[in-house]
Each structure stands twice: as C-alpha cells, then as structure tokens.
Design brief:
With 518 residues, the chain is α/β, with parallel strands linked by helices. It has one domain: TIM Barrel, CATH 3.20.20. It is 45% helix and 15% strand. Strands 1, 7, 10, 11, 12, 14, 15, 16, 17, 18 and 19 form an eleven-stranded mixed beta sheet that branches. A four-stranded mixed beta sheet has the order 3-4-2-13. It has a four-stranded mixed beta sheet with strand order 9-8-21-20. Strand 18, helix 11 and strand 19 form a beta-alpha-beta unit. Helix 2 packs across helix 9, helix 6 runs antiparallel to helix 18 and helix 9 packs across helix 10. It starts with a helix and ends in a 7-residue tail after the last helix.
Length: 518
C-alpha cells in the first residue's frame, strides 16, 4: 500500500470512529433529577462539628467580618450587631447569626424557562453546574488562548446538549473580544436563547444583577414567580474575613429580589487561613454564615446555598493546590457544617492544577468529584471542563468530565434487589459451569443492564491501533465537534425574544464604557 493509500485508509477509519461516536449514548443522556441515596460521610463526630461551630462563632463575636459597603453596615447596625463604621467591621453575637441563618430555606425550587428543566435544591438532590470564571479556552485544534464570545457560545451550546448538566453557566469563559461593560449582556442573551435550563449570572456589583433580574422578568414575567427563584449567582468572600463592595452589591441585589445567592468563601489554607484544616474550616464557616445572615437581612427567606471552596496552598511555590486530600477533607466537613444549619451545600467537582486533560487532571478531578458525592453535595459547581487551577476551560476535558457525571447519574440510581433482579430461576436453570450470555433474562436487559460509556475505549489493542490510536482527549475532540454540529437552539417565544433583544441593545448603549461595580 502506498503512503497515500495508507493515509486514505486511516482517514476512512477515523470517519467510521467519528460516526460511531456521534451515535453514542452521549446524545441521549436524559435530563433528570439525581437523588444521592448514599449516607453522607461524616468526617467528624458531633463533638468535633460543635468545636468547629463554636470556633466560628468566636470568630464572628470577637474578631468580626469586614463589610466594605455602607448599606450592608446599616443593615447590620439596624439588626443589633456591633458596627465600627471607620474599620467597616461588624461583630455579631451568635444568637443573632443563628436566628438570621434559620430564616433561610432548607430546600427550594429553581425555575428554568423550560419547566422540564426546573431543578430542586436541597435534601438528597444533586445538581451539576458547568465550569465558571475561566479566562482561557483550550482545545486540541487551537491550543490555549484567551476566551472569545464564540468560545462562550460553544460552551453554552454544549451545556444545553448535555442532559447531565442542570444549569446554564454564567462565566463559562471570559469573552475577551467583548467590552467589559457589555459582557454580562452577551452572557444573558446567550443563556436565555441558546439554553432553556436554570440560569446563573455573575453577582458582581449592583448593575449586573439588576440587569439579570430585568432580563429574567422579560422571560418569566414581572413580577418574577413567587414560588421559587429563576436566576442566581456566586458570592465569594474576600478571605480572610472580608466581603468587598462588589460582592455585597450582588448579594443584596439578588437576595432582595428573592433570587439565589451561593455564598462561597475561597480559602487557600496557609495563605488565607492558618495551615490546619480545622482552622480553615472554622474560618470558612464563619465567613459563609456571615454572608448567609446578610442575605436574610436583605430579605428573610431568600434562597441561599452554603458554599465551600477551601483547599490548601502548595507551600513550596505559593500556588493553589487542587484535588488534594486536604481539599477532600474540606468538602466533606463543609457539607457537615451546612447540614448542621439545615442549608443546601455547594462544592466543586473537577478542580485540578493540570494544564492539559491528562492523567493528573483525571486523578485530581476524582479527588474532587468523589468527595462531593460522598458528602451529598447539593450543588456541584465547576462540574466539567476545569484546567490550570481554573484559568482554562477545555473543550476536551468538558466531554471527559461529562463521562464522570453520567456514571454518577447511573451509580446513584442504586441497586435493584427485586425478585426479577435476583434472578434465582436463571441461576438455577444455568447451574454450575454454564454461561448467561444467551438467556432471556440477559437478552431482555442487554441494552440497559450496565452503564454504556460514550468516551471510554474498550477496543482490543489491534483494533484500536487500526482505528488510529485515538486516546481519550482525541475521542473527546471528535465528540464536542459532533455535538456542536447537531446543536439546535431551544424554542423561545418570538415576542419574548424580541423584547430581550431590545433590552440587551438598549443596555449596551447605556453601559458603553461605564464602570459597573458600584
């Protein structure tokens, strides 16, 4: 065979592999509620949890939290906390904190514009949300580069096409080709037109969340539904022991409108807290409860999620370390603390320091996603796509991580122990030394008995070699391209679409060059 014929044959094999992958179960993973029936792992006993709780209360009472926002300070003062307006520091008695936190709902409904995609937050339910806050995009064809609006659109389309993801992301990747003051408007347009899932938007300042609420009113009606929120955003504490004005503005704006806030301290033990896990978690708990309490000052009963994003720093380099045993401890213990206060819990699912979708990325991801499941995390942020400590969103890793989520969706269904599943008659019929490949019991179940991977390769070595020696990232590369090729935008009422387009266009004119974070 000539070299040209060899290349031609290999290309034909690549096409066959691509076509077979395009017909894979990936495209038919159903959107469904996931219940986590596992008993949560309790890292500490009751006495240990109370020691963390008491330490957190002492932090709030004796040291306080800085709130760099005049309205927040006024709300705390009116509530009876001790407020130092010069230092912008608030000290709060534990009774006040626990009273306020107790007003937050244990469970709530988060509406999507497609009612079939509405989700429940809390209890034993698991929600997977995509990558967020990443600066760079990456794929095998174009490498790592600053994100663009086209990249953002591609990720949002993949979210829509992926049934195991429940939430339309907000900052999936930064669109550097869009003016800063316009970026949230492009995100809102894409979120409401390219997807029909529950929506997130950056809770940065007061203008961005206000625009998000106004856009949501176009889609859901004004006033917004009273029986549950329709949009939400993440509020990060500026650890240690501080909330800045940008985060407070988003917190108050979303909470006052009855929308979701996901209160998440971001602690790197050894830098933003002492190096010990106990100290880091006591501080995380104090910061989270202070933020949650403020949501209830803004609006009693506002839906809120207790978030945890605590891991350790690499003391040799000062870099954050992800997918570590210490990070796993923090996920498990954070969930215990959230359950103590009867709050839904947010963790993170694919955290890794790896620069490419390699073995390190897979290993560190497992050290993050499995603790989330063992902790019975309710809201799993960054469930797909994360690389490079959150700087990069990878299209290949997106697909590779979806395989993990699909396997959890299958695994968490639990085991059937009915008479039909125990199959004693079949065991007796075949007896010693036989096999079950051709029994009616097997034939009736052969398409559903086991999880069928869409990405993992199970070919014999020779067949795999003849097919082009595709590794997992190469197969993932084919899959995301096939998904985008088959994407169809979900239907949206024409009048709502036109009204949203008019709103976005008007706000772009009004916000051109405006500083948003005040």
């Amino acid at each position: 065979m000539t070299n040209r014929e060899d290349r031609s044959a290999r290309n034909a094999r690549h096409d066959k592999l691509r076509q077979s992958r395009a017909r894979s179960p990936y495209l038919s993973i159903p959107f469904q509620t996931i219940h986590n029936s596992l008993t949560p792992v309790e890292l500490l006993d009751g006495a240990g949890v109370e020691r963390i709780h008491d330490a957190s209360m002492r932090i709030l009472e004796e040291f306080g939290i800085d709130f760099l926002d005049a309205e927040a300070l006024d709300l705390w003062q009116q509530a009876g906390a001790t407020v130092d307006h010069t230092k912008r520091r608030v000290k709060m008695e534990r009774g006040l904190v626990l009273e306020l936190v107790g007003k937050a709902p244990e469970r709530f409904t988060w509406h999507a514009r497609n009612p079939a995609h509405t989700i429940q937050i809390g209890g034993d339910q698991v929600v997977f949300a995509p990558n967020g806050g990443t600066v760079f995009a990456s794929d095998l064809d174009n490498g790592r580069r600053p994100g663009t609006l086209a990249d953002f659109h591609n990720f949002q389309k993949l979210v829509q096409m992926t049934g195991v993801l429940h939430v339309a992301g907000e900052q999936l990747v930064v669109p550097h080709d869009v003016q800063v003051s316009q970026r949230h408007l492009e995100r809102l347009w894409a979120g409401f037109t390219l997807t029909d899932k529950a929506m997130m938007e950056a809770a940065h300042g007061r203008v961005i969340p206000a625009d998000a609420i106004a856009a949501a009113e176009i889609i859901f009606g004004s006033p917004l539904p009273a029986d549950g929120p329709v949009i939400g955003g993440i509020i990060n504490a500026n650890s240690p022991l501080r909330y800045d004005d940008r985060m407070i503005g988003g917190l108050i704006t979303f909470a006052r409108a009855g929308q979701v806030t996901i209160i998440t301290p971001f602690i790197l033990a050894g830098v933003m807290s002492p190096v010990t896990t106990a100290a880091a978690l006591a501080q995380q708990n104090a910061e989270a409860l202070a933020g949650i309490a403020l949501t209830q000052l803004a609006r009693p009963g506002a839906p809120v999620i207790y978030g945890g994003f605590t891991t350790n720093v690499d003391l040799k380099s000062g870099a954050p370390a992800f997918g570590t045993p210490e990070g796993a401890w923090a996920l498990l213990l954070g969930a215990q603390m959230a359950r103590r206060y009867r709050l839904p819990y947010r963790g993170s699912g694919t955290l890794t320091n790896a620069k490419v979708a390699d073995a390190q990325a897979a290993t560190e991801t497992q050290w993050s996603i499995w603790p989330c499941m063992l902790a019975r995390t309710n809201f799993v942020m960054h469930a797909v796509g994360w690389l490079e400590s959150g700087l990069t969103a990878s299209l290949e890793k997106f697909v590779m991580d979806v395989e993990h989520l699909a396997m959890f969706q299958h695994f968490l269904q639990g085991i059937d122990v009915s008479d039909a599943a125990l199959a004693l008659a079949e065991i007796g019929q075949i007896g010693p030394g036989g096999h079950h490949l051709g029994t009616q019991h097997t034939l009736d179940r052969y398409t559903t008995a086991f999880y069928q991977p869409f990405l993992a390769d199970r070919l014999a070595y020779e067949t795999w070699e003849l097919a082009g020696r595709f590794d997992a990232p190469m197969r993932a590369n084919l899959l995301w391209k096939e998904l985008l090729a088959q994407y169809e935008a979900p239907p949206l009422d024409a009048a709502k679409r036109d009204a949203l387009a008019d709103f976005i266009a008007r706000r772009k004119r009004e916000l051109a060059g405006v500083e948003l974070y005040r």
